[in-house]
From TrEMBL:
Pfam families: HTH_18 (PF12833), Response_reg (PF00072). GO terms for biological process: phosphorelay signal transduction system. The lineage of its organism: Bacteria, Bacillati, Bacillota, Bacilli, Bacillales. This is Two-component system response regulator YesN. Residues 443-541 form the HTH araC/xylS-type domain. PANTHER family: HISTIDINE KINASE-RELATED, TRANSCRIPTIONAL REGULATORY PROTEIN HPTR. It comes from Cohnella lupini.
Length: 545
């Protein structure tokens, strides 16, 4: 879609162009207007415009002056000029400014749309050439960042035991003995939420945007190379290189710059992040240790005191963490789920998590480990109860997202909710396995209706519970009992209605509620339809029913 700006001080001419233009056919999204050249510049500053239609005779800033400014400040902008027959000065400026077309007053439909079509074809051709150039350059330059990323990862993961080759050392600044190195780890707490809201669930694009912000801001004082951790989607790694200076100076600058990064990311995307700054190393092979200290710094952040983004130095020592083990509670959760009592299982988790919340601290490292242990133990339990192993998650946030469990949490309360969502998922999978492994008895449906006739009973309740089709269930029930499911519900209610009406102490309104009807009138109508007498008539003479 293209955007067009009409610049003319005469409203009738602007209106005429609006009427004559084949905007829909030419693929125009917006048609903007300006009454003079100065206003045109204001509109261009606030909007993306592809083509400007300029009347040469205007007050304040005329067409000649405007074209010169556009040529200087907006060289990619295409212009179409409108003028009279004898304005040679305007024609000369139009030719100098390389306008797309020169339209004479009065403007006619064919000339206008032909000029617009010509402009849009030029734009399309330019975009094609630009994209081809960009794609070629991306192909040529993609290998270098990827190579650097692989080198850094191999050092961080300690998979490179030998010294780097001489060819690789200059790529990462390892050839200069004056360079110091550090690793900064950035963890995006609300990655899923901002990915969905701002990046159409494209996590790679989100990573790219965040890395650009880090490199641009932090790069004011030292060189940064940022990339997503391939093993942890929520984590970005930044390798910082600084030439000379004191370690303390580099550490101070790192904290200062990363606070600016955190603030900018929150302002741009609403991102909440935890930043761990690793200790400073004199040689590049030491970045593995720097990475570990940056991770440790994040793990030491107290979730109970978390209110927004946090930047911490790896030199800060973490306090000893409590050991919050699920081992003693999994048997209780299993017993509750086996008996179909999901609510009891939820209360077990809620009671346990309240103990975490009332403790002196609950650190991010504890939160990670506790979540990992819960998923591992619940997987073991679910598999032991014959749940489908293909529907059970592996450990890790990426695996949880694949089964529809969002793992964002920016507060302790949201962290608690994550466990309840997981429990609901496991409870459903266990219920599925129990249903699939137990022979189906159509009498179970009849027994349920006999016991719960006063509820709003729907066939979908049974199709979801037994994983059988609606048609099959209805046919099977009728073959077994001679009634359709809905017919049987009505029969049980009407049989019960007679028994209740025989008790003169009960009001018809009360009986209606006891049978699950919406109101007295609805019950009376159903009773009359079934027995050909109203409830009052039946009460007066039971033999009529």
């Amino acid at each position: 879609m293209y955007n067009v700006l009409i610049v003319d001080d005469e409203e009738p001419l602007r209106e005429a162009i609006r009427i004559l233009g084949d905007w829909t056919g030419l693929g125009v999204g917006k048609v903007l207007e300006a009454t003079d050249g100065q206003m045109c510049l204001t509109v261009l500053a606030e909007n993306k415009v592809d083509v400007v239609i300029v009347d040469m005779k205007m007050p304040v800033l005329n067409g000649v002056e405007l074209l010169r400014i556009l040529e200087r400040d907006h060289p990619d902008l295409l212009t179409i000029v409108i003028s009279g027959y004898n304005d040679f000065e305007y024609t000369r400026q139009a030719i100098h400014s390389k306008v797309v077309d020169y339209l004479l007053k009065p403007v006619n439909r064919a000339d206008l749309n032909q000029a617009l079509d010509k402009a849009f074809n030029l734009i399309a051709a330019k975009r094609l050439v630009d994209n081809d150039f960009i794609n070629k350059n991306i192909t040529l330059n993609m290998s270098l960042p990827k190579l650097k990323e692989k080198i850094y990862l191999s050092i961080i993961e300690r998979s490179t035991k030998n010294q780097l080759s001489e060819a690789m050392m200059p790529l990462i600044g390892a050839d200069d003995k004056e360079n110091r190195f550090a690793v900064i780890v950035l963890r995006i707490l609300n990655l899923e939420e901002i990915g969905r809201r701002r990046f159409h669930d494209d996590v790679d694009l989100l990573h790219f945007a965040v890395a650009n912000v880090i490199n641009e801001i932090a790069g004011d004082h030292f060189h940064c190379f940022s990339f997503p951790n391939p093993r942890r989607e929520r984590e970005l790694i930044t390798v910082v290189t600084m030439k000379g200076g004191y370690k303390e100076d580099m550490a101070y600058r790192s904290i200062h710059q990363m606070n600016k990064v955190a603030s900018t990311l929150n302002m741009l995307f609403g991102a909440l992040i935890l930043v761990g700054i690793g200790d400073i190393r004199n040689e590049v092979m030491g970045i593995s240790g720097s990475y570990e200290s940056a991770k440790a710094a994040i793990k030491g952040i107290d979730l109970l005191k978390l209110h927004g983004s946090v930047v911490v130095d790896g030199s800060e020592k973490s306090l000893n963490a409590d050991n919050h083990s699920w081992v003693g509670r999994i048997p209780m959760i299993r017993s509750a789920l086996e008996s179909g009592n999901l609510q009891h299982a939820r209360s077990i988790i809620s009671d346990y998590s309240k103990k975490w919340g009332s403790s002196e601290s609950f650190r991010i490292g504890e939160a990670d480990r506790t979540l990992h242990d819960f998923v591992t133990l619940m997987n073991d339990m679910a598999m032991d109860l014959k749940a489908n192993p293909e529907r059970l998650p592996l450990t890790g946030e990426n695996a949880l997202r694949e089964i529809g469990i969002l793992t964002d949490y920016t507060t302790f309360g949201q962290y608690e909710e994550l466990f309840l969502r997981l429990l609901d998922y496991y409870g459903e999978e266990i219920r599925r396995s129990q249903t699939a492994n137990r022979p189906f008895e159509v009498g179970d449906i009849k027994a349920y209706i006999d016991d719960y006739y006063y509820e709003d009973i729907k066939i979908s309740m049974f199709t979801e519970k037994y994983y059988l089709s609606r048609e099959y269930l209805m046919r099977l029930f009728k073959q077994q009992f001679g009634f359709g499911i809905h017919e049987y519900v009505q029969k049980v209610r009407m049989d019960k209605a007679k028994v209740l009406l025989d008790d003169p102490a009960l009001k018809i309104q009360d009986i209606s509620s006891m049978l699950g009807f919406k109101d007295k009138n609805y019950f009376s109508k159903a009773f009359r339809t079934y027995y050909s007498v109203s409830p009052s008539e039946y009460r007066e003479n039971p033999k009529n029913g």
